Fold:
Amino acid sequence: MIKSIFFSLVLIIVLAGTAGAQAFISTADLFSRNDEKSAELRIEQDPAVDTLLSRYILMSHRALPENDNNYGMDGYRIQIYFSSTRNAREESNRVRAEFISRFPHIASYKKYSEPGYFKVRVGDFRTKAEATKVFLEVSRVFPNAYIVRDIINFPELTKN
Structure:
């Protein structure tokens, strides 16, 4: 009887310890910058806000396996290549290199998704209107391009 109580107590302690070992992300960490122009950002808020933010980020990260361990926001990209053929890897590299040579000012991303699809997506657009402006230029060179919803990188904050 005492052994079973002791075993149950140890099991509860171990389970409680593993359940509380979730990653925690504070708000100040989300807005930190590592350059010469950065200033100190001081956020004073209820710790519950950090807990909710951390839970939201973890939930979003688990829901999006294609996210490649990057955090981002909902937005749009232009998909210029999509294939699962035998030479899709080499072809996606070729298409991406061609895109970079023609549009060096626009970011490009190569993705792989199961069960064997290679994609090349370009840009980080917050709205569909922003994506459409660039899409009109890109579609002249890549006629099979189309706009897709995606998780985009956070835009740079600039002073106006």
